[in-house]
Design brief:
This protein is of the alpha/beta class. The protein contains five helices and ten strands. The strands form two sheets. Strands 3-2-1-4-5 form a five-stranded mixed β-sheet, with helices on both faces. A five-stranded mixed β-sheet has the order 8-7-6-9-10. The protein is globular, with a radius of gyration of 17 Å.
Length: about 220
């Protein structure tokens, strides 16, 4: 059996799942304001392995959310994934964070727009078909009243930006699915298994998360 451990730490939600042949069998996750990924992640991994009734040696690969998202969160997730791959001698798989977020929206038609908060009115976003095919590449953008006006189809927005964006994005074909907030390791399972079957692996030594924009260090005013 092909068991894959999926790690998602791109947002405030720390999420870990184990999939068997592309189907999620165990998932542990929690969303907290304080980004407790460093404390939670390895506990979640250990718990998932135990709950699945397997050992680390049964894992065929480790999949990690590649971003965009939180700089710190992505670093924690990728570091853990690389460490496990090195220790176990198994491949690393990188999964598109926004595509995994879009997968939570079950729609029959129209387009899905996953968005993640990038501070102020800036977001990380992409556009996918109802079948999760890419219709517009990932980009960082500042949301205005003119954003996405080139699309006439129904746009279903998902992610953690609803509160700040729905008062600006008011076109009649815009719909906000506010129950879909954070990407989850559950939705990574199908994508990571497909990549595993196609041997679409990341380089364990040189893989870096997709930050999209530079991480800005600020000096405390205190």
């Amino acid at each position: 059996m092909n068991y894959i451990l999926n790690i998602e730490t791109a947002t405030k939600q720390c999420s870990v799942s184990i999939a068997k042949e592309g189907k999620t069998i165990v998932c542990n996750e929690i969303a907290e304001e304080g980004y407790s990924h460093a404390e939670r992640l390895h506990v979640f991994i250990e718990d998932c392995v135990k709950e699945a009734g397997i050992s680390y040696k049964d894992l065929a690969a480790i999949a990690v959310s590649q971003g965009p998202g939180s700089y710190t969160g992505l670093r924690i997730g990728v570091s853990a994934a690389k460490g496990l791959c090195f220790a176990l001698g198994i491949p690393l798989i990188a999964v598109d964070t926004l595509q995994a977020l879009a997968a939570q929206a079950s729609v029959a038609s129209g387009l899905i727009v996953p968005m993640l908060d990038a501070r102020r009115m800036e977001v990380y976003s992409a556009v996918f078909s109802a079948g999760l095919e890419s219709k517009r590449a990932i980009q960082a953008e500042i949301i205005t009243e003119d954003s996405f006006r080139e699309f006439d189809e129904t746009l279903c927005f998902v992610g953690d930006c609803a509160a700040k964006c729905k008062t600006v994005l008011t076109k009649s074909n815009f719909v906000f699915l506010e129950d879909v907030v954070y990407p989850s390791a559950k939705e990574m399972s199908a994508f990571s298994y497909e990549k595993y079957l196609n041997e679409d692996f990341a380089d364990v030594a040189y893989f870096e998360p997709y930050y999209l924009k530079d991480f800005m260090m600020t000096t405390s005013k205190k």
